[in-house]
């Protein structure tokens, strides 16, 4: 599962 | 939020303060590439189109700070201290960077939507946005100490983000291939600069 889509970094 | 990421963000903030301080104190933007600063403004504006999406107060404030300061720096360079900017030193062709990054973002993205493609574009563009600045330095031969501090803070910010991704991969199973590959290239560009600078 790729949870990189949340874009929670700056 | 972990130690690496927080420190990285603070280094990023510091790099911007160093740049602003240099411009205000010397009342000059000599040695600074307007093109690199323009690319950073484009990076922040296209990446933070999701500003209305709430993640945290920290996240929102930082986004506003990055957008505002990057545009303010453009104003300082193009209006307030315009006379101190020498375009003949700043000759890197950014059209190619913009075009290549847009093309890459249209092909390699997580989903084909307006916001996602522009977010991906900003990730690719940030990786290469420093090139006009490095090109300018290699042309003029030497950098002012303050410019080196600016680049050092930016390089540290990128290096710490790599450590943050390793940390997040092991602690929260976090993965973001697009950001990782672009980030690795970006950090490599800075490492190359520091290597050359160190050897001098």
UniProtKB/TrEMBL annotation, chain B:
Enumerate the transmembrane spans: 55-75, 96-115, 150-171, 177-198
Subcellular location per UniProt equals: Endoplasmic reticulum membrane
Q: Which InterPro entries match?
A: ER_ret_rcpt
Q: Name one Pfam family in it.
A: ER_lumen_recept
> Which example biological process does GO assign this protein?
vesicle-mediated transport
Q: Which UniProt keywords are present, listed alphabetically? A: Endoplasmic reticulum, ER-Golgi transport, Membrane, Protein transport, Receptor, Transmembrane, Transmembrane helix, Transport
**Single GO molecular-function term?**
ER retention sequence binding
**Membrane topology, as annotated:** Multi-pass membrane protein
The Swiss-Prot or TrEMBL record describes its family as follows: Belongs to the ERD2 family.
Query: Could you identify this protein by its name?
Result: ER lumen protein-retaining receptor
Organism of origin is Gigaspora rosea
């Amino acid at each position: 599962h790729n949870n990189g889509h949340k874009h929670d970094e700056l | 939020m972990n130690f690496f990421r927080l420190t990285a963000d603070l280094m990023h903030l510091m790099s911007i303060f160093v740049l602003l301080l240099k411009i205000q104190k010397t009342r000059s933007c000599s040695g600074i590439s307007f093109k690199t600063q323009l690319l950073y403004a484009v990076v922040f504006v296209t990446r933070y189109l999701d500003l209305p999406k709430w993640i945290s107060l920290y996240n929102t404030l930082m986004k506003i700070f990055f957008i505002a300061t990057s545009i303010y720096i453009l104003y300082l360079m193009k209006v307030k201290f315009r006379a101190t900017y020498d375009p003949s030193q700043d000759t890197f062709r950014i059209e190619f960077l913009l075009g290549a990054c847009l093309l890459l973002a249209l092909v390699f993205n997580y989903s084909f939507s307006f916001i996602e493609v522009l977010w991906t574009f900003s990730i690719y563009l940030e990786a290469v946005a420093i090139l006009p600045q490095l090109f300018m330095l290699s042309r003029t031969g030497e950098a002012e100490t303050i410019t080196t501090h600016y680049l050092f803070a930016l390089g540290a910010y990128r290096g710490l983000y790599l450590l943050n991704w390793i940390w997040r991969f092991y602690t929260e199973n976090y993965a973001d291939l697009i950001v990782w590959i672009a980030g690795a290239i970006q950090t490599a560009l800075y490492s190359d600069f520091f290597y050359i600078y160190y050897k001098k």
